[in-house]
Specification:
heterodimer; A: alpha+beta; Ubiquitin-like (UB roll); Fumarate Reductase Iron-sulfur Protein, Chain B, domain 2; 2 domains; five-stranded mixed β-sheet; 7 strands; about 35% helix; elongated; B: alpha+beta; FAD/NAD(P)-binding domain; Flavocytochrome C3, Chain A, domain 1; five-stranded parallel β-sheet; five-stranded antiparallel β-sheet; 17 helices
Chain lengths: ~260, ~650
């Protein structure tokens, strides 16, 4: 196939960026999108130019490192797919494809297609954990968890933290990401003691970091490569409301 | 050099308990005065950093990814073993110990493996406490599945994303410690040098991958949890960023490298699709619970697999290993696949593939059950190949996956360099010459949650934090200078070939000459070809950009430079180990029916190599393997 790639090139934070066109010949339909960028980069280095920077690691759709906007869609046109698992057979000969970084106030651009998503780590650090000290746990089968509950928790826990939900949201909201974590832990009996504080801390941190609010566009669910659904946001909102009426937020501290 | 594994005395099942009592402790109030560096944030590193933080130590944790949650442990699919015997199927600590030693073809240390089996149960408890959503029965109890090399069902799983869920558990525990200020995370930082003075690890030098800034970090102990060196082979199931730089830099500073030739080729990966291939994707071993592996009986049978009648199919694993069948261990399954493909019976492009067929299981259990068990794996397969595995069999082929070799460590997981600990895949300790499925997660978490946080106290209690070096010490300045010189050298070669082209060439050479089957001629040929390739690399590599910049080409170049050196040691070890054992299959040494023929008389030892300079012959130190509880036998899965 022949394709026209237009890629956002930006030298660094605060620098001016622009779309640069790269015609690509001999594209194999069995290539992944990242392998197409590999091929382009080999050509650019050959010509003495600076290759395109992009985050990637496992290339099997689970680490959450990769991701950018492909012709306006986070991770591109295929459903339930990360950028690394997007294969060129989803495109047609002659297509023009535009690759831009995830854009959000909370994700500053580092270079080209690479953004800083450390704000997602900060949301987890605010409360996305069960404070179980190593060694203090009882036998794993001492606590029964109904299969449907465990399965539902797993549905939420499947989030890979790629940030596509934030990039796709017109408000730049991290509600789907945060809701997935709150729901995963909040659905499990182990997660109950800290459930309210977790909801308060994580939601407040999300707001503090400059993520927007949810206004039910559903774009996040549409682009989520792991199929996390927005009913988890409703669940998070319930948890947050309930927590707000019964508890006040406390900082994370040692016992 | 005297290698002392420091294995505690006493009966096998009492060693760890006794050792825990015998070790020195650090008073809780004094712990905060000590600082520990953890490099890597996967299952081993993440769990260790979190647990050391809980204990009260000041911890600095470094990872090259943009978040601690992305380490490649995340990609482990199938499960984690533990000797819980929840299935009432004759499992026990001793059986897990036995299976692991046998699976490793009697090339691992009894005491380490027994301890691993002993703490495996607590690992599961800890993970559940952290909220890992393991698969459950309708009763609410934990579910299990089977894995290769075992006849019991002891593998715990979270769909096909077990590694991800375990890692997110460790990452959440780590996040709490970060919030408490006990652990400081340094994402997008790559360790480029270890600082050693007076035989003691003093700290590390790292490069900030965003700004290019090179800085020193000093500590009372350094823990390397940086994974394996499978990417020496270029194409592997490892993440693209997985590298050996941390352990190789430590090796160059005196840490011995043990059993580098013990590399595991995983039997069930998606075959190579073309020249552009950048990595290989694993299809979990758990698929072999229900999938049946076969090839056509006739060579060059081009028929559609659904048109090939039963009588014309060879279910070769079931035929050769009737008692383990499709769940034969990885090394054996991989070699069997290579063998049928070498006979011209392989399927798919280039004939390098075998079928993994679910039609019988779908008929027996229904598609919905198969979807429930393996749905995400089937989707991944379809995404990559464009073929629907519910309708036609998967095509799979072996690929480089995991390394059993790594830095040599004693029973305390400390290398021969004082204060340098190595945990998880980065060390060599537990899997011998072949690792069983679902045991890497077990080892990473056992090391990180339970073993290192115990053994490190004993070292720290003997040293004083007052003697910690400052970062302006000459040793750190020298190491920083070394890092900068290396970087300058890479950037100033300004040659004609890209880093990837060198890496591919090295990988091809390793796969062809030191892959599933190895022989003296091929190994010697590789030893002749690696040094000129390395020389050409330094002379003719083209690394664009600058040092003070976000420069992914420079990162890759540094890693490939180290693979070029490690590859030579790996091949050298493979040549020296003139026997077959586990994944190390020397074609000269096989039984009449083609199985690995071990030579316990000559090779029942750990090969621990000492670095003597690039291109210089490394020095071999032998740690004899003593079997007190088990008697080494010819491994049989028939």
């Amino acid at each position: 196939m022949k394709l026209m790639l237009k890629i956002w090139r930006q030298e660094g934070p605060g620098k001016k960026g622009a779309l640069v066109a790269y015609p690509m010949d001999d594209v194999s339909p069995d290539m992944s999108f990242l392998e197409l960028l590999d091929t382009l980069n080999e050509q650019l280095i050959g010509k003495g130019e600076v290759p395109v920077a992009f985050d990637h690691d496992c290339r099997e759709g689970i680490c959450g490192s990769c991701g950018f906007m492909i012709s306006g869609e986070a991770h591109g046109p295929a459903k339930l797919t990360t950028t690394c698992q997007l294969f060129m057979r989803h495109f047609k000969d002659g297509d023009t494809i535009i690759a831009e970084p995830f854009r959000s106030r909370a994700f500053p651009i580092i270079k080209d297609l690479v953004v800083d998503r450390s704000s997602l780590d900060k949301i987890v650090q605010a409360g996305g954990f069960i404070s179980a000290r190593t060694g203090s746990s009882p036998d794993a089968n001492a606590m029964l968890i109904p299969k449907n509950k465990a399965d539902r928790a797993m549905d939420a826990a499947a989030c890979i933290g790629c940030g596509a939900c934030v990039a796709a949201c017109p408000n730049g909201s991290a509600m789907l990401f945060t809701a997935a974590k709150i729901s995963h832990l909040g659905l499990l009996p182990q997660g109950q003691p800290e459930r309210h504080q977790r909801a308060l801390r994580m939601v407040n941190k999300m707001d503090e970091l400059g993520f927007g609010a949810c206004s039910n566009h559903g774009e996040c669910e549409a682009v989520c490569p792991k199929g996390i659904t927005i009913d988890f946001i409703a669940r998070m909102n319930r948890d947050y409301m309930r927590a707000s009426t019964t508890e006040t937020m406390e900082p994370v501290k040692r016992v | 050099m005297e290698l002392n594994a420091k294995i505690p005395s006493g009966p096998l099942e009492k060693k760890w308990e006794k050792h825990q009592f015998d070790m020195k402790l650090v008073n809780p109030a004094n712990k905060r005065k000590y600082k520990v560096i953890v490099v890597g944030s996967g299952l081993a590193g993440g769990a260790a950093a979190a647990t050391l933080g809980q204990l009260g130590y000041e911890v600095n944790c470094f990872c090259y990814q943009d978040s601690a949650r992305r380490a490649h442990s995340i990609a482990a699919q199938g499960g984690i073993n533990a000797a819980k015997n929840y299935q009432n199927d004759n499992d026990s600590i001793f059986r897990l110990f036995y299976d692991t030693i046998k699976g490793g073809d009697f090339r691992s240390r009894e005491a380490n493996v027994y301890r691993l089996a002993e703490v495996s149960s607590a690992v599961i408890d800890q993970c559940v406490a952290l909220g890992v959503p393991f698969g459950r029965e309708y009763s609410g109890y934990l579910a299990n599945r089977s894995f290769g090399g075992a006849q019991v069902s002891r593998t715990f799983y979270a769909r096909g994303q077990t590694g991800q869920q375990l890692l997110l558990g460790a990452y959440s525990a780590l996040s709490l410690q970060v919030a408490l200020g006990q652990v400081k995370m340094f994402p997008r930082h790559e360790m480029l040098e270890l600082v050693v003075t007076d035989g003691r690890a003093r700290g590390i030098v790292v490069r900030n991958m965003v700004t290019g800034e090179v800085t020193s970090h000093t500590a009372d102990a350094v823990v390397l949890a940086t994974g394996g060196y499978g990417n020496t082979y270029y194409l592997s199931t490892n993440a693209k960023g997985c590298n050996a730089t941390a352990i190789w830099r430590a090796h160059r500073k005196g840490a011995l490298f043990a059993n580098p030739c013990f590399t595991q080729i995983h039997p069930t990966c998606i075959p190579v699709a073309g020249e552009h291939q950048s990595k290989l994707t694993l299809m979990s071993e758990s698929l072999r619970n229900d999938g049946r592996i076969w090839v056509p009986k006739k060579a060059d049978d081009q028929r559609n697999p659904r048109d090939i009648p039963e009588g014309d199919r060879d279910y070769y694993l079931e035929r050769k290993y009737p008692s383990y069948g499709n769940l034969a261990p990885r090394d054996i399954s991989s070699r069997a696949a290579k063998q049928v493909c070498d006979e011209g019976r392989g399927v798919g492009p280039g004939g390098r593939g075998v079928y993994l067929d679910f039609v019988e299981a779908i008929g027996r259990l229904g598609e919905s059950v198969i979807r429930e068990r393996y749905g995400n794996l089937f989707e991944m397969y379809e995404q990559i190949t464009g073929e629907n595995p519910y309708k036609q069999p998967m095509r799979i082929y072996p690929a480089m996956h995991y390394v059993m070799g790594g830095l040599w460590v004693d029973y305390n997981l400390m290398s021969n360099v004082e204060g340098l600990y190595v945990i998880g895949e980065a060390n060599f300790s537990d899997h011998g010459a072949n690792r069983l499925g679902a045991s890497a997660l077990m080892q990473g978490l056992a090391d990180g949650y339970f073993i290192l946080p115990c053994t490190i106290n004993d070292y720290l209690a003997r040293i004083s934090p007052a003697n910690r070096l400052k970062t302006d010490d000459a040793a750190f300045k020298q190491a920083e200078q070394d890092v900068q010189q290396r970087t300058t050298r890479l950037l100033s070669a300004k040659g004609t070939r890209t880093v990837d082209s060198f890496h591919r060439e090295l990988g091809d050479l390793m796969w062809n000459n030191c892959g599933m089957g190895r022989n003296e001629k091929g190994l010697k040929e590789a030893l002749a070809k690696i040094p000129p390739l390395r020389e050409e690399f330094w002379r003719n590599v083209r690394v664009p950009g600058s040092a003070g910049d976000f420069n992914q080409s420079l990162e890759k170049a540094g890693r490939v430079a180290d693979f070029m050196e490690l590859a030579e040691l790996l091949v050298y070890d493979a040549l020296q180990r003139d026997e077959s054992c586990g994944a190390h299959f020397r074609e000269e040494h096989q039984t009449p029916d083609g199985e690995a023929a071990r030579d316990d008389e000559r090779f029942s030892f750990v090969s621990a190599w000492e670095f003597k300079g690039v291109g210089q012959t490394p020095v071999l130190h032998k740690e004899p393997l003593v079997f007190e509880s088990l008697h080494p036998t010819q491994r049989s899965y028939k």
